[in-house]
Automatic annotation (TrEMBL):
Region ranges (Disordered): 154-173, 186-220
Reactions performed catalytically: S-ubiquitinyl-[E2 ubiquitin-conjugating enzyme]-L-cysteine + [acceptor protein]-L-lysine = [E2 ubiquitin-conjugating enzyme]-L-cysteine + N(6)-ubiquitinyl-[acceptor protein]-L-lysine
Family annotation (SUPFAM superfamilies): RING/U-box (SSF57850), SMAD/FHA domain (SSF49879)
Gene: rnf8
Classification via Pfam families: FHA (PF00498), zf-C3HC4_3 (PF13920)
Protein name, as recorded: E3 ubiquitin-protein ligase CHFR
Membrane-crossing residue ranges in chain numbering: none
Length: 461
């Protein structure tokens, strides 16, 4: 079945080509909104378009010289008479019926297709936009000329006013078509300070809904916007079909009454479609503005929340830093106090005999103080003060010194407290142990010297 269909299409294409050759019809690209600068597509050859010198048709952009590449694209006719366009990896691309074609891949064209080179700039319509036509050479040869005199001659030499009127009427829909593409490209980049929102006819209907899911109050506007976008798509399809039909009728003889009536009906239909399309676009634009305002408010609120959270975090860090600084200051003060206290203890409350803090301090009659164990051990050898060498008349426990030392030792380090505890335990053990003294008496007699030991045991507590 597919082979049969291909054969039928090839036969019909060959018949159409033979008929067109007999009638003197040619293929060309009619420039929208212009009565000159149309580009003829020569059969059985590759037609190249660009701003370079080695191309078939050289087109130069006035607003942006680099809009068109040196070898922008290539048109080629297949064996069956179908034309294809290939994008030669141009910078701004080739657009067919509003869709950019893939580079280096031939795209099949149909009569009435809209071919656009480049993109719109600053809200202006596309500079180079064409319609593929198959018409008689006698009718369009004047438009293929690039001189103004040829255009004037074409205006004055045509006997059929109705046909000329159709040409002028056709220009207006084409300009409206260009404005339609301009609106679809510019509504998303002007007038609002927020980030631009992509229209669903280019990015798909799921992108806006995915972008605005954070806005809880925008679901109703999104539904309305989707509905308007669907209506816009339907209107654009109907308008494209109407323009395609009008282009087909333009390429034929418009002498019959039915064709003129059909053309007038198509023009009326296009006017209605344009009015409805403009109204739908206005509603969609309003909905889009509401959505973008909602998004702006939501983003502003989220930004304020982030700023507030950052400020709270900074405040918390500052408070923690202040607390840590206060702790460090208190620790330093405590260390300084402990250092001073240790210095005082070492200088004023230290026993001169054992070089330790007083343990069970005892004050002598000369007002000097010592450890009870140390002064007792000292008095076994000498009964005088170790400092001033005065005789010891009396001694008394100094509870005030003991209490003062105990309270001050509590603030010392753990090592010093443990060391003092060990010393106290050691001295208590020495105090409980009995002391044994041996006295040896030697008798120097002539007869029998002997040593008679006598031991005296004295326990000191």
């Amino acid at each position: 079945m597919e082979e049969l269909a291909k054969e039928v299409s090839s036969l019909s294409a060959e018949e159409g080509e033979e008929t067109s050759k007999q009638n003197g019809q040619i293929w060309c690209l009619k420039r929208i909104g212009k009565d000159s600068g149309w580009l003829q597509l020569f059969e059985n050859t590759e037609v190249t378009i660009g701003r370079g010198l080695n191309v078939t048709h050289q087109i130069l952009s006035v607003s942006c010289p680099l809009m068109i590449s040196r070898n922008h694209c290539m048109f080629k006719q297949r064996e069956h008479g179908q034309w294809t366009v290939t994008d030669n990896e141009s910078l701004n691309g080739v657009w067919v019926n509003g869709t950019r074609i893939s580079p280096r891949k031939p795209h099949v064209l149909q009569q009435g297709d809209l071919v656009r080179f480049g993109v719109p700039l600053d809200g202006n319509p596309v500079e180079f936009e064409y319609v593929l036509l198959h018409s008689s050479l006698d009718k369009i040869k004047d438009f293929l000329s690039k001189t103004a005199g040829a255009e004037v001659k074409a205006l004055t030499s045509r006997p059929k006013k109705s046909k000329r009127k159709f040409g002028t009427d056709e220009t207006e829909p084409n300009i409206s078509k260009a404005k339609l593409y301009r609106v679809s490209n510019t509504d998303k980049s002007h007038g609002l300070p927020c980030p631009p929102a992509t229209l669903p006819d280019q990015a798909g209907p799921s992108e806006p809904s995915g972008r605005f899911t954070q806005c809880s109050d925008s679901s109703q506007h999104l539904t309305s916007l989707k509905r308007y976008n669907e209506n816009l798509k339907a209107l654009k399809e109907r308008m494209g079909a109407t323009q395609k039909r009008a282009a087909e009728l333009e390429g034929q003889e418009a002498s019959s009454l039915e064709q003129r009536q059909e053309m007038e009906a198509l023009q009326e239909q296009m006017k209605l479609l344009r009015g409805e399309l403009n109204s739908q676009q206005e509603l969609a634009r309003q909905r889009m503005e509401i959505l973008e305002r909602t998004v702006c408010e939501e983003e502003r609120r989220l930004a304020m929340e982030r700023i507030q959270q950052k400020e709270d975090g900074l405040k918390k860090q500052l408070e923690e830093a202040l607390k840590e600084e206060e702790k460090e200051r208190a620790r330093a003060q405590k260390e300084e106090v402990v250092s001073q206290m240790t210095e005082v203890l070492e200088n004023e409350l230290q026993c001169i005999i054992c070089s330790e803090l007083f343990i069970e301090a005892v004050t002598l009659s000369c007002a000097h103080s010592f450890c009870q164990h140390c002064i007792a051990d000292w008095r076994r050898r000498r009964d005088e003060c170790p400092i001033c060498r005065q005789p010891i008349v009396s001694q008394a426990r100094s509870l005030v010194l003991d209490n003062c030392i105990d309270r001050m030792v509590e603030n010392l380090s753990t090592v010093m407290r443990e060391r003092r505890t060990a010393l106290i335990s050691q001295r208590k053990g020495l105090r409980k142990a009995p002391s044994v003294g041996l006295v040896v008496i030697q008798d120097d007699s002539d007869t029998d010297p002997s040593i008679q030991p006598s031991s005296t045991a004295k326990a000191t507590w």
